[in-house]
């Protein structure tokens, strides 16, 4: 039998983690696949499960001091329905998995799974999201890009839970998200792209560009973004080849069962072109 503990609240969950090495499970849509051993066999969990999907403290969405706070166990379908959630994040979530899976899967699970193909990640990187990580003794807040260190790898400590995702409550004038998969639904990304921008007086005043599935972690370059900020929109069309050339060396995908590296690279750079052309 697989052992598990269902804490009454977040404090009890953190105290359990401090005493017992355990595996947090929210919706289980990643974990149950990763640990499956075949029909009729129990999944291969080497530690007790700690159920966190029901914890009230992790199910809240609120806006405070100019930031959107999203609990780690908020379901993907709840993100789509909530009017505080930015449209660019909703665009990504609507294309994840299927409606039934989105009623189990959580945003925290997507982040902690740390897949380069995780579909909430390009937006979270582009939006400068911070994560709150709590243990029974301490709390720390770090940018999402410092949390994920490689495919499936994070700086999460064994006694910590991701409790909250904090996104600056900023509305961008241009929101762009594209996912390229084998099908429209129920398929992991071959490539994904988030573009956010602000345009004032015909000039780019802010731009964020993030690529998924093309490197060990999400690709974003503040240096290249800074080189675009301040340009008149009328000059973007001519600048597109130069911007694409700057990003090209950062796009280092792999060949795998879902796609070839060459296809991923070409399509990602075309998505960048498409986003930039839409700004004009
Ligand atoms: C059929 C199918 C289709 C899918 N399609 C997509 C897709 O289109 N796009 C996509 O990005 N993903 C997809 N996924 C993957 C998965 O559904 C998502 O990554 C989902 O958001 C994971 O959330 P979860 O709550 O189920 O995570 P879980 O499986 O519960 O957990 C995932 C990992 O995160 C850890 N964890 C979870 N919550 C916390 C927390 N608060 N603190 C610390 N650690 C935590 C767990 O220990 C585990 O290691 C798909 C999966 C399936 C089965």
Secondary structure elements and pairings:
Elements: E1 4-5, H1 10-19, E2 23-25, H2 31-34, E3 49-51, E4 61-64, E5 67-71, H3 76-81, H4 87-94, H5 99-102, H6 107-113, H7 121-126, E6 130-134, E7 139-143, H8 144-147, E8 148-150, E9 153-154, E10 161-168, E11 174-180, E12 191-200, E13 203-212, H9 222-228, H10 233-247, H11 261-279
The site of flavin-adenine dinucleotide (FAD) has 30 residues, from strand 2, helix 2, helix 6 and strand 10.
Return the domain count: 2
Which CATH top level class of the largest domain fits? Alpha Beta
Beta content: 15-25%
Count of helical regions: 11
CATH topology of the largest domain: Uridine Diphospho-n-acetylenolpyruvylglucosamine Reductase, domain 3
Major β-sheet profile: 5 strands, antiparallel
The 3D shape can be described as globular
Number of strands: 13
- What's the architecture of the largest domain, going by CATH? 2-Layer Sandwich
Bound molecules: flavin-adenine dinucleotide
On the 0-100 scale, what is the average pLDDT?
A: 95
Helix content: 25-40%
Order of helices and strands: EHEHEEEHHHHHEEHEEEEEEHHH
Strand-pairing-aware structural class = alpha+beta
The Rg value, from CA coordinates, equals 19 Å
User: What is the strand arrangement across the widest sheet?
Assistant: 4-5-10-6-7
**N- to C-terminal distance:** 59 Å
Please mark out the parts with pLDDT under 50 across 5 or more consecutive residues, or reply none. Answer: none
């Amino acid at each position: 039998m697989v052992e598990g503990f269902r804490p009454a609240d977040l404090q009890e969950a953190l105290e359990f983690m401090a005493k017992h090495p355990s595996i947090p499970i929210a919706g289980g849509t990643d974990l149950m696949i990763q640990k499956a051993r075949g029909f009729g066999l129990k999944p291969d969990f080497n530690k007790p499960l700690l159920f966190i999907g029901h914890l009230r403290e992790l199910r809240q969405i609120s806006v405070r001091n100019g930031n959107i706070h999203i609990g780690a166990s908020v379901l993907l379908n709840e993100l789509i329905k909530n009017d505080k959630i930015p449209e660019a994040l909703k665009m990504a979530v609507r294309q994840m998995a299927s409606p039934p899976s989105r009623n189990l899967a959580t945003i925290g699970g997507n982040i902690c799974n740390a897949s380069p193909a995780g579909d909430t990640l390009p937006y979270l990187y582009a939006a400068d999201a911070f994560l709150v990580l709590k243990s029974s003794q301490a709390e720390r807040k770090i940018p999402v890009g410092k949390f994920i260190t490689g495919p499936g790898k994070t700086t999460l400590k064994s006694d910590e839970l991701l409790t909250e995702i904090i996104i600056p409550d900023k509305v961008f004038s241009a929101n762009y998200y594209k996912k390229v998969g084998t099908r429209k639904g129920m398929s992991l990304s071959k490539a994904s792209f988030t573009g956010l921008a602000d345009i004032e007086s015909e000039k780019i005043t802010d731009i964020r560009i993030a690529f998924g599935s093309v490197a060990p972690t999400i690709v974003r370059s503040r240096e290249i973004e800074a080189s675009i900020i301040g340009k008149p929109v009328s000059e973007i069309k001519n600048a597109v080849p130069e911007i694409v050339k700057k990003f090209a060396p950062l796009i280092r995908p792999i060949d795998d069962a879902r796609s070839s590296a060459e296809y991923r690279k070409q399509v990602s750079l075309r998505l960048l072109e498409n986003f930039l052309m839409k700004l004009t």
